[in-house]
């Protein structure tokens, strides 16, 4: 089945630094990538949607200059949290799919990245 | 506005005690309802897709059903390894993304 690899699984960074999270589709072409943020006991909140080769579309309230998304190829998307602050600490998850919406198996999710900003 | 509501928020069962999780939704033009399982510190893992009212899917101790307003995830004779958060998501309307409920955290005690 479709596999999405997300790295790193955990990262601790100092306040003011930037962190890059990678999401790779291993066996299919990910035309569309979704980036989510999840706080404890909360659901997945969509941050942005990106289509390969295009600029990402950000959800209302998400700072595009703080959360930089690059989707330059059909197998790789990156999320960079710039000038991270403690309030950016969260669980970040990517999911990927083709251009026709979710397959019969939904969108495939990465394993998530736990970001802690100290 | 498209919306997904899951209940209960948390459910504690004894091993072997069957129960059901509920997912009610409002979406303009449902094109799919998905159930996922999420373990702590992990990404969601796909369980089922349902497309139309009356449809049912089964996998081991889990059975998902769909009506025009809600979906149920029935768990028969659960085991401790079924403990996880179960997420419901809908796909429809004009958006390409899935809209998730807050999930039901299931704990199964031996």
Give a brief rundown of this model:
The complex is a heterodimer of chains A (118) and B (110). Chain A is 0% helix and 51% strand. Chain A is mostly beta strands and 118 residues long.
Strand content of chain B: over 45%
Q: Write down how many β-strands of chain A occur, each being a DSSP E stretch of 2 or more residues.
A: 11
Global geometry of chain A: globular
Specify the structural class of chain A. Answer: mainly beta
Largest sheet of chain B, if any? 6 strands, mixed
Mean pLDDT of chain B: 94
Q: Assign a percent range to the helix content of chain B.
A: under 10%
Distance between the termini of chain B: 41 Å
Oligomer: heterodimer
Q: Please, how many helices of chain B?
A: 0
Spans of chain A of 5+ residues with little confidence (pLDDT < 50)? none
Tally of DSSP β-strands of chain B? 11
Task: Write the topology of this structure.
The complex is a heterodimer of chains A (118) and B (110).
Chain A: E1 4-7, E2 10-13, E3 19-25, E4 32-38, E5 44-51, E6 57-58, E7 67-73, E8 76-81, E9 90-97, E10 108-109, E11 113-117
Parallel strand pairs in A: 2-11
Antiparallel strand pairs in A: 1-3, 3-8, 4-5, 4-9, 5-6, 7-8, 9-10, 9-11
Chain B: E1 3-7, E2 10-14, E3 19-26, E4 30-38, E5 45-50, E6 56-59, E7 62-66, E8 70-75, E9 84-92, E10 99-100, E11 104-109
Parallel strand pairs in B: 2-11
Antiparallel strand pairs in B: 1-3, 3-8, 4-5, 4-9, 6-7, 7-8, 9-10, 9-11
């Amino acid at each position: 089945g479709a596999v999405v690899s997300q790295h790193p699984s955990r990262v601790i960074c100092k306040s003011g630094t930037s962190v890059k999270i990678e999401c790779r589709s291993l066996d299919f072409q990910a035309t569309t990538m979704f980036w989510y943020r999840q706080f404890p006991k909360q659901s997945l909140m969509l941050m942005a949607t990106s289509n390969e080769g295009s600029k990402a579309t950000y959800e209302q309230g998400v700072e595009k200059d703080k959360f930089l998304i690059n989707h330059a190829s059909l197998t790789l998307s990156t999320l960079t949290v710039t000038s991270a602050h403690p309030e950016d600490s969260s669980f970040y998850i990517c999911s990927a799919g083709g251009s026709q919406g979710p397959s019969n198996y939904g969108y495939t999710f990465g394993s998530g990245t736990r970001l802690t900003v100290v | 506005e498209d919306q997904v509501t899951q209940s209960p928020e948390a459910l504690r069962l004894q091993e072997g005690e069957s129960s059901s999780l509920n997912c009610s939704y409002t979406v303009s033009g449902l094109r799919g309802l998905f159930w996922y399982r999420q373990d702590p510190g992990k990404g969601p893992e796909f369980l089922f897709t349902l497309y139309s009212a009356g449809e049912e899917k089964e996998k081991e101790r889990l059975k998902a059903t769909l009506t025009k307003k809600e979906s149920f995830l029935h768990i028969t004779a659960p085991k401790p390894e079924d403990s996880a958060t179960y997420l419901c998501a809908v796909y429809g309307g004009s958006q390409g993304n899935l809209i998730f409920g807050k999930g039901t955290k299931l704990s199964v005690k031996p």
